[in-house]
Amino acid sequence: MVKRPSKLLLQDQDTSLLGRPRRRRDPSQPSLPFAPLPDRIEPCLALLKQKPPVGPQWAFEVKWDGYRVAVHLDHGQVRILTRGGHDWTDRFPAIAEAARNLGVAMAILDGEAVVLDDQGRSDFGALQQSLDGRSGKKTSDASILMAFDLLYFDGHNLMGTELAVRRHLLENIIPRGTEGAIRLSEEVEADGASLLTAACEHGLEGIIGKDRESLYRSGRGGDWVKIKCIRSDTFAVVGYEHSLSARAGIGALVLAARKDGNLVYVGSVGTGFAESAAWKLREQLDKLVAKKSPVNYSGRRKDVVWVRPRLLAEIEYRAWTHDGKLRHAYKGLRDAANVYEIE
């Protein structure tokens, strides 16, 4: 049986992490006019920070490693949209069925579609495998939704209400401890520094901090922040180093980030390829072969096959080298996302 993430985080930890029992918040119901169900809402994104914020207004929860999705429920009709706006309802049948059984007529849930390991940790590789990759056609019965926000409910758009109110309403729909294909991403009663330490010790990706008084604003405005145990960002694939000895002939991926509106070379990554994943990736790369480099290449290898920068790779890395290159490990391809921008 999969362990609950909150229990995983807090086991064998100092009891101060648990904090005081939370008194049930009873906010006055917002006086909101009726609003039609939005076709799509651009998600609120977390701003990467090196340290957790401090202050009583900050709430913290686990950072889930999966695909960001919005679940739209309209009188039994369900749509599951990815961060890039793609309709993946058919690819997450268990989540869709669980949404129909929530007992509400109209709602938009914001959350992360994940696959959990036997310790309750999200496993992005297992999620990709269950879907046969980002551009695959498989459905994932193993995926569940970790819901962390409620954007629309019962004819009312909640984006203009504070997070504390939205969470109160969300917990009425998905109570704490609920099992199944839709679960609550629980707030953990701990200060950010202690929670981050616990998360890293248990092999989690990191934590998310959210301003309880903030409204829901699309984009990366700073109301939500993410602190990672290992840095992870999205980079454009602009080529690959050909190798006769490597899986599928891919010795390494050539990566680029954005700087002042242009793509710049930030290094190559050649680890983390499984046999099947390498061949699927090679098929995608062969469809994007370009005659010339999209970047000013300063690497040592000359046998680089250049591609149009259409594929995005999630790269885990611990630091930047002194010459602006990544120290990294390959993680996986992503759906539409923002390429890392160098300041």
UniProtKB/TrEMBL annotation:
Molecular functions per Gene Ontology: ATP binding; DNA ligase (ATP) activity
Pfam families reported in the protein's UniProt record: DNA_ligase_A_C (PF04679), DNA_ligase_A_M (PF01068)
Domain ATP-dependent DNA ligase family profile as annotated: residue spans: 145-228
GO biological process: DNA recombination; DNA repair
Region (Disordered): 13-37
Catalysed conversion reaction: ATP + (deoxyribonucleotide)n-3'-hydroxyl + 5'-phospho-(deoxyribonucleotide)m = (deoxyribonucleotide)n+m + AMP + diphosphate
Gene3D superfamilies in the cross-refs: 3.30.1490.70, DNA ligase/mRNA capping enzyme, Nucleic acid-binding proteins
Keyword Ligase assigned: yes
Enzyme class: ligase
Keywords tagged on the record: Ligase
Family according to the record: Belongs to the ATP-dependent DNA ligase family.
UniProt-recorded name of the protein: DNA ligase (ATP)
Species: Rhizobium leguminosarum bv. trifolii
